[in-house]
């Protein structure tokens, strides 16, 4: 009886594990497809967001350039304009896209761990990861992984030599040279719709990721996010794995930096001791 009472008392005084607040969750920057919007992408990702509600906060942003509604947008999203895209007709991505994304992330104030892109947004997402990997001076360097759903091709960059920003180069895959394949080794997921008219471009985009760090999922769907519960769950589970791997890598880096600081501190202390001995002599 005493043992049971003690156990009960201990349980009663042990505070429950606090649930993370929505604002405390790691953030995903979400880039919509061409001819849609942040609001539309929020609806399209509804199933995925519900599956990952305890793990991520999804942050949506509108592309800076207005355009007609994209393929499949109407009539379901009739009246939800203006519709937007990430590519301009005059090659002004460098001056508009990067500042927009930087401001969105700064205003949100969250900890961004990954980027999620659909269709044209996937092109941009891969370009952002490439800039991070190549240590571009203005790269958004907080992303630890990328998720590309029904991505098109080629990757979209903002002013780097690898990704020309001329309208012709951005709209025509023929300008993409095969030697630029395998350009990122950042952990990634590529979701391809087997009935998607852009499936070939999705597979080409997937070839930009190193096989060792990429997961490719092909589902029997068209140009949209997974709708079958099993497919949504499979994608969500893999995204959680990437999140945990990223967090563990960050922890290792923190521990390595601490160790380096300790080594430097010990060396400094040793030098001080040597100088004190020399002065006393």
Task: Give the biggest sheet.
Answer: 6 strands, parallel
Question: Helices and strands, in N-to-C order?
Answer: HEHHEEEHEHEHEHEH
Average the pLDDT over all residues and give the rounded result.
Answer: 83
- What percent of residues adopt helix (DSSP H or I)? 40-55%
Query: Termini, distance in Å?
Result: 71 Å
Oligomer: single chain
Order of strands across the biggest sheet?
2-1-5-6-7-8
Structural class based on helices, strands and sheet pairing: alpha/beta
Tally of individual helices: 8
- Strand runs, count: 8
**Spans with pLDDT under 50 lasting ≥5 residues?**
1-14, 159-179
* Beta-strand content bin: 5-15%
Gross geometry: elongated
| Rg measurement, Å | 24 Å
What does it look like?
The chain contains 8 helices and 8 strands. With 281 residues, it is of the alpha/beta class. The strands form 2 sheets. Strands 2-1-5-6-7-8 form a 6-stranded parallel beta sheet, sandwiched between helices. It has a two-stranded antiparallel sheet with strand order 3-4. The N and C termini lie far apart (71 Å).
């Amino acid at each position: 009886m005493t043992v049971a009472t003690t156990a009960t008392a201990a349980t009663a005084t042990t505070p429950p594990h606090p649930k993370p607040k929505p604002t405390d969750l790691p953030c995903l920057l979400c880039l919509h497809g061409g001819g849609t919007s942040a609001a539309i992408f929020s609806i399209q990702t509804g199933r995925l967001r519900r599956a990952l509600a305890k793990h991520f906060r999804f942050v949506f942003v509108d592309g800076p350039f207005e355009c007609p509604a994209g393929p499949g947008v109407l009539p379901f999203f009739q009246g939800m304009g203006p519709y937007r895209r990430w590519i301009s007709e005059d090659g002004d991505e460098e001056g508009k896209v990067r500042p927009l994304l930087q401001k969105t992330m700064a205003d949100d104030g969250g900890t961004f761990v990954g980027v999620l892109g659909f269709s044209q947004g996937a092109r941009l997402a891969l370009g952002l990861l490439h800039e991070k990997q190549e240590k571009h001076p203005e790269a958004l360097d907080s992303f630890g992984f990328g998720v590309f759903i029904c991505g098109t091709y080629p990757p979209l960059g903002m002013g780097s030599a690898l990704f020309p920003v001329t309208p012709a180069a951005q709209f025509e895959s023929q300008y993409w040279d095969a030697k630029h394949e395998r350009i990122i080794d950042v952990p990634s997921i590529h979701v391809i719709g087997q009935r998607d008219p852009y499936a070939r471009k999705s597979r080409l985009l997937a070839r930009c990721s190193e096989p060792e760090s990429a997961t490719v999922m092909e589902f029997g769907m068209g140009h949209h996010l997974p709708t079958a519960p099993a497919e949504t769950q499979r994608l969500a589970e893999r995204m959680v794995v990437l999140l945990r791997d990223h967090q563990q890598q960050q922890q290792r880096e923190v521990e390595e930096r601490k160790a380096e600081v300790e080594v430097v501190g010990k060396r400094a202390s040793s030098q001080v001791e040597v100088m004190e001995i020399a002065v006393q002599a």
